[in-house]
Amino acid sequence: MATLRLGDTAPNFTADSSVGKIELYDYLGDGWGILFSHPADFTPVCTTELGTAAKFKSEFDKRNVKMLALSVDGAASHKEWIKDINEVQQTEVNFPIIADEDKKVSDLYDMIHPKADNNLTVRSVFIIAPDRSIKLILTYPASTGRNFHELLRVIDSLQLTAYHKVATPANWKHGEDVVVSPAIATEDAKQMFKKGVTEVKPYLRMTPDPTA
Ligand code: BEZ
Asked: Looking at the predicted structure, is the pLDDT value of residue 82 above 70?
């Protein structure tokens, strides 16, 4: 399998999970998706991540993003681990965890980086658009838990820039000013963005978030 890159079609798969068999495309429906891998069950950082992810589910729901986790242990192990996660994180894991014992999905998505670890996945994140294209790929080492605020922030940017001719600047958060797409002439931008356009430099034009 060639390395997946931004814009590639997210490969479909069928796999067992904590809630039974799942087919990726069927699971995503016509919405967005986030697929994130965990090195192994009953590991401390993963336990905090999955509990945190569960607490953020309503925010992913609001953005029409289906959550799907993956770990290279079996479904029975996942179910036992979920009990622990729910207990120690005081939450309810409310999305499936793929049981990737044969590493079929991990291999398909290049989630095992042998120089990091031969058997366990790194912490990969794939954000998939409704047209099944991959919009974001992140790779964290096993020793670093991910920031779910950042994942929501980047989804806000991806969804905004998918539907408006803008880009989002450093540290941008929903509601803050955005950058006019470089492909648009300033005069055209002034017609397009009714909230106004500020030309800081000919190549740096700002406008209020069109969705705020
Ligand atoms: C963890 O989730 O805590 C973890 C997993 C593999 C290696 C290091 C940490």
From this structure: yes
pLDDT tens digit sequence for 145-167: 999 999 999 999 999 999 999 99
Q: What is the arithmetic mean of pLDDT over 190-204? A: 97
CB neighbour list of residue 194: distance below 8 Å, 6 or more residues apart: none
**Nearest Cα residue to atom 7 of ligand 1:** 142
Can 138 be counted among the known catalytic residues? no
Residues 71, 85: Cα–Cα separation, whole Å: 14
Task: Indicate if ligand 1 lies below 6 Å from the C-beta of 48.
Answer: no
The mean predicted confidence, pLDDT, of the chain is 97
| E strand intervals along 25-148 | 32-38, 65-71, 97-99, 123-128, 134-140
pTM: 0.96
CB 73 within 8 A of CB 105: no
Residue 49 alpha carbon, nearest atom of ligand 1? 2
CA dihedral 107, 113, 116, 121 (to 10 degrees): -30
Return the structure tokens found at 100: 């990737």
**Tokens 């670093």 sit at which residue?**
144
